[in-house]
Amino acid sequence: ISFNAIDSALSSLKNCQSYINSGMDVATQVALDLVQSFNDEEDVNNMEKVMLEYATMDRQLNHYIKAFEETINQVKREKPEILPDLENLAQEKFLEMESKNSDSDFQRNEKYMYFKDQLKEMKKQYNGNDTIEQIDEDIAVTRSQTNFICPITQMTMKRPVRNKVCGHIYEENAILEMIQTQKQKKKKVRCPKMGCSHVDVKGSDLVPDEALKRVIDSQNKQ
């Protein structure tokens, strides 16, 4: 049996995932733009709905790909004399996976969770400081500027990245250089934030903190 055509179709499906990921990146940037521009809350909520739709599509696509891969592997393993209806077999597996869907699935979608996290941070920076500033504007500014300082360089960050494990933020180049240097010595990197107990910082755990970058850029322009 030749599976070239099926492999080609699966490859095309996987390409569709890259389009979904690109769409999620764009939706995230648009949502952050809306918060930064103090747009109507409904507009921001609509972008959340768009992200949820993308996450749903991504889940369906993952299930479809997995169903076909399992079907092909099953046929290759069992080598039946009469080839079964692959489409029906894959459809059954797909429907079985879809029947187990739950909202908690979206917590495994990194793009969706990143969107939620960044949106929350952005709202906090642009909508949540009113009461603090009313108490003492100087204290509020000083407190927020402290968050702009990289624990490694002790300078204002230009490209902040957040550690998904411990939540601390560093200048991208500084932390990557530290990881590379320690890797050459075959040593792990302890989080450079004072008091943090995380002892194995990896490059794969770092995500750009777009919300903080926007706040820093805005502050620098003033």
From TrEMBL:
One of its GO terms (biological process) is protein ubiquitination. It is found in: Nucleus. Pathway: Protein modification; protein sumoylation. Residues 135-221 form the SP-RING-type domain. Gene3D superfamilies: Zinc/RING finger domain, C3HC4 (zinc finger) (3.30.40.10). Keywords: Ligase, Metal-binding, Nucleus, Transferase, Ubl conjugation pathway, Zinc, Zinc-finger. One of its GO terms (molecular function) is zinc ion binding. One of its GO terms (cellular component) is Smc5-Smc6 complex. The keyword Nucleus applies. Its main location: nucleus. Belongs to the NSE2 family. This is E3 SUMO-protein ligase NSE2. It comes from Ptilonorhynchus violaceus (Satin bowerbird). The lineage of its organism: Eukaryota, Metazoa, Chordata, Craniata, Vertebrata. The gene is Nsmce2.
